[in-house]
Amino acid sequence: FFFFFFFQAEDGIRDAQESRGLGDVYKRQLIHMAHNDADIVLRSKDEREFKVKFGIALMSETIKALASYPEEVEEQEEWNPPQSAIPLPPVEGNILEKVIEYCTYHSENQEAKEDERDAWDKKFAQVDDDTLFSLILAANYLDIKPLLDLTCKTVADYIKACKTPQEIRRRFNIKNDFTPEEEEEVRKENAWCEER
């Protein structure tokens, strides 16, 4: 009789490279913890500098790439945090401060109940329109998907609350540049939308 035993180590399915045991798992965790606690500096468009833990900044795929953080675990051992500030030219300082607040909360409260995080997110997104749109642009540039989803959903909720195009224009201070004739033509072309 032949018995085959299949087991999976703590860190999931192994790479093609042969494992050296659970010591690898703990070594990876130590490397990961050391990198997460490392300080990096982010520089905004208006030359403000923000010191932040790398583990918090890792929510941004853009910052991860700008810091040349390797994907391969073996290469992560050799990686060192950048000594100079990472420039983020499209992001103003006040917006970067809000982005860091968001990332810090979500990094430190991963174990919090979903309801608590959702309530915090809702309160976080209650900002003026200029700030909200700047957060959307920053989240897109920094490639922070959860923040982009939150801010876009907030705008969508504002739009859904409006009953007419005129209300949407008032809500977002959008100037109507259609002539009455053009508006009527668009209404006729899209009549099918209003039929229920």
Based on the model shown, name its key terms.
single chain; 196 residues; mainly alpha; 3-stranded mixed sheet; 3 strands; 56% helix; 6% strand; elongated; disordered N terminus
Write up this protein.
It is a single chain. With 196 residues, this protein is mainly α. The chain has helices at 22-37, 54-57, 61-66, 73-76, 93-108, 114-124, 129-142, 145-161, 165-172, 180-189, 191-194, and strands spanning 39-43, 49-53, 86-87. A hairpin with a 5-residue loop joins strand 1 and strand 2. The longest helix has 17 residues, at 145-161. It starts with 21 loop residues before the first helix and ends with a helix.
What's the structural blueprint in terms of helices and strands?
Layout: H1 22-37, E1 39-43, E2 49-53, H2 54-57, H3 61-66, H4 73-76, E3 86-87, H5 93-108, H6 114-124, H7 129-142, H8 145-161, H9 165-172, H10 180-189, H11 191-194
Parallel strand pairs: 1-3
Antiparallel strand pairs: 1-2
